[in-house]
Amino acid sequence: MEEDRYYHSPESVNEYIELAKEVSGQQHILKLKKYLAPNSTLLELGSGPGTDWRILAQDYSVVGSDNSEAFLEHLRNQNPEGEFLALDAVSLETEQNFDGIYSNKVLHHLQTEALTNSIKRQHEILNPQGIICHSFWQGEGSEVFKGLFVNYHSKASLHDLFDPYFEILMLEAYREFEEDDSLLLVGRRR
């Protein structure tokens, strides 16, 4: 798949930051805290505007990441004390290992084969008993929205993808804009 370009220009990054200024993964992070101890090392995939990164940094030794240099520049300017890596969510080219990996509506931009490769790589860079926490749009099929690929998932499809590598601790529907339009998955490395 050709790389999506929406998040790569300063204009689109600023547009997204404005659109997402009232949105955070606070409720996801509260659920993550039930499974991942304070001060654990945590990698956030797709830190974007940094809203969730700042919440996560209150309890964890968090490393942010993004595949967009425009977002990385924003993150580093807004959070000079933070560590932010230029990472693709599929290859996750880092030598670091983590106790947890978190993403909020990031992995749905991957086609199924790429998501499978990301899951395998997450398994590789997690410490034993490591925890993942990811949110997805719930539905069927895929579409291109604002130039971005969006792959919808069901509980069954996520279970099939993650179960070979992770014990699924929680997989529940929640409301982002409409009832049960989203899914939150928490798993432990097998």
Rounded Rg: 15 Å
Strand segment count? 9
The CATH superfamily label reads Vaccinia Virus protein VP39
Distance between the termini: 30 Å
The biggest beta sheet reads: 7 strands, mixed
The ordered string of helix (H) and strand (E) elements is: HHEHEHEEHEEEHEE
Task: Characterise this structure.
- The chain is of the alpha/beta class.
- The chain is 29% helix and 31% strand.
- It is built from six helices and nine strands, in the order H-H-E-H-E-H-E-E-H-E-E-E-H-E-E.
- The strands form two sheets. It has a seven-stranded mixed β-sheet with strand order 3-2-1-4-5-9-8, with helices on both faces.
Write the layout of secondary structure elements.
Elements (H helix, E strand, L loop, with lengths): L9 H10 L6 H7 L8 E5 L5 H6 L4 E6 L2 H10 L4 E4 L11 E7 L7 H14 E12 L4 E4 L2 E4 L3 H8 L3 E9 L7 E8 L1
Parallel strand pairs: 1-2, 1-4, 2-3, 4-5
Antiparallel strand pairs: 5-9, 6-7, 8-9
